[in-house]
Amino acid sequence: MEGNNQSMPIEFDMIGFSSHPELQPLFFMIFLVIYIAALLGNIAISTIITTDSRLHTPMYFFLINLSILDICCTTAAVPQILQIIQSRKKTMSYSECIAQMCLFSAVLSSETILLTVMAYDRYVAICHPLHYTTIMSRMTCIFLALAVWLLGFMNSTVQTILIVRLKFCQHNIIDHFLCEIPSVLKAACSDTYINNVAVIIADFFLGMVCCTLTVISYTYIISTILKIRSAEKKKKAFSTCASHITVVTLFYGGVIYTYVRPASSNVLEADKVISTLYVIASPMLNPIIYSLRNKEVINAFKKLLERKL
């Protein structure tokens, strides 16, 4: 099927979960409930941190940025997924697909870098506690946060520009429930060699380099914690890192499977399941992980409730 002129109306047929039509209402309810939970959870944790001056520290500053990214991530994907599930004509226009892909890839790129920055913050706090306030100053935190957002959106812009130059057929089939870079490239009707090279470069810097830096940070952190003699201090140090390690494992597991594995791998149903980890599961679980394992957040939440009631 030859690629049509880009000026002709182009549509993407989203297969999604169409292979299980009897489960469509169930999928709709699951996505809707998790989306609402993710929104409320991330808004709540951002509100708690903002209103409690005791939480105005670098760690919680980056946590607010993570919450904002999680809100953007779910909002970029889930409303469109819900619309596709409930509609008979499960299609997306070219502009809708490109817009979703651009925003979604920007959020994923930014979150990958942010998790590395958060690991560095924990490294400085545990391995160099006496110099923590000097190294992680207010200006440094603001600079790192700006770099996270800027680099994430720069990567997304480059990837989007390269994809827009491709030709697509008038009707394209995407066996997924959202437009991601790998699934959109598979639907292209022209050569995607340059795009694949750009994706590999992005995978290397955002995936492998960030993941390696995070692992190095936690190697030093764990080594330092194990040298602490006091059992109570050791437990407290581990508790401050356990939440972040859990979040990193969930996020990197899904992203690396989708973006870094060989392009020849074609396990479509597995792709959809893994994508839900970082599209809806991770944004929903992040506030729970950080709040339930953190006494400071719980106490701040109780204080906020008492003040409101």
UniProtKB/TrEMBL annotation:
Residues 41-290 form the G-protein coupled receptors family 1 profile domain. The keyword Membrane applies. The keyword Amino-acid biosynthesis does not apply. Gene3D superfamilies: Rhodopsin 7-helix transmembrane proteins. InterPro entries: GPCR_Rhodpsn, GPCR_Rhodpsn_7TM, Olfact_rcpt, Olfactory_GPCR. It is found in: Cell membrane. One of its GO terms (cellular component) is plasma membrane. The chain crosses the membrane at residues 26-48, 60-78, 98-120, 141-164, 204-226, 238-260, 272-292. GO terms for molecular function: G protein-coupled receptor activity; olfactory receptor activity. It is a multi-pass membrane protein. Keywords: Cell membrane, G-protein coupled receptor, Membrane, Olfaction, Receptor, Sensory transduction, Transducer, Transmembrane, Transmembrane helix. Its main location: membrane. Belongs to the G-protein coupled receptor 1 family. This is Olfactory receptor. It comes from Microcaecilia unicolor.
